[in-house]
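BUG: 3D viewer hangs when loading the predicted structure for this chain

Environment: internal workstation, default settings.
Expected: structure renders.
Actual: progress bar stalls at 90%.

Input used:
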Amino acid sequence: MFREDDRASVERIGAAEDPGSMAADVRAGLLGVPKDLSPWPKYLYDERGSELFEKITTLPEYYQTRAEAAILEEHARGIFARAGCRELVELGSGAASAKTRALLDAMSAQTLSNVRGGSADDESTAIHYVPLDVSESALVGSARVLLDEYPQLCVSGFVGDFEGCLKSLLARPPWPGGRLVALLGGTIGNFTPEKRRAFLSRLRAGLGDGDHVLIGVDLVKDACLFEAAYDDEAGVTAEFNKNLLSVLDRELEADFDPSLFEHRAFYDAENARVEMWLHSKVEQEVPVGALDLTVRFGAGEGMRTEISAKFTRESAGEMFAEVGLDLVELYTDPDDLFGLALGRPEEV
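Structure tokens produced before the viewer hung:
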């Protein structure tokens, strides 16, 4: 556990992940028809996968990060003016990013504005940041940096997987004034519809009076923009996708050869989602020692590795409504590439 005076702490929340869960997930995916590992996108993000994804976010074809940053630059203060929160809970926070700082800047400015008419003291102007991430080192590094940048900030970091630890995280007593629970980027799109509904239902169940949610949603647009973003010219996304095979080799004693697979990505307009696949270039058999399993691939046979659902204003509202959330506003960039959906619990 990390602690810095009384202003910052980082600790584990919930039980450590059962290593057997990966074996069960991968077995189910490899034995499916078609083979499908997309319900478990977290396995793409080992240390190497995370590094490659950070590189992807800087590519000219990958618009999401830039568009989301533009939305926050334009609307972060408006978001906090409407939410009125003094606590930011960020799921899958990683290292402190420009997006996190945009939200902290807005929350700080809104809090200071709220107390100008009353007695402004240290307690009344304090703000609280609650990041959750699987990387303890990223959380500790962020806490140290942010404490220097924001004198009125307190940080309570938690190490864990936000899918499994959400209930415990939201069971903590919030600061006065409510909290904003943020899931930035297009992460919500990586869930299957069933898992997305279950996750948002758990999120809704943990919200109290005055709480809000802020969910990043990639918006429906021309298919060529999607396919360029998920199959970039430099081949970084292909390397990111194939890295999953290296994860399986290392963690499950498999013998995948990434050079024998081809990365493919396409937009499925009927289901409004991008799908990433790895297609076997040859007929082959791949042993997976930890599963006592040999997986057969026909030449050209594919294995789905990730989905990324895309949304309209209407479908974002429906996503919220089916779990008891009201869509307060969908903030978009000038080109309508990406959106940040602000929601709150439905009034009964």
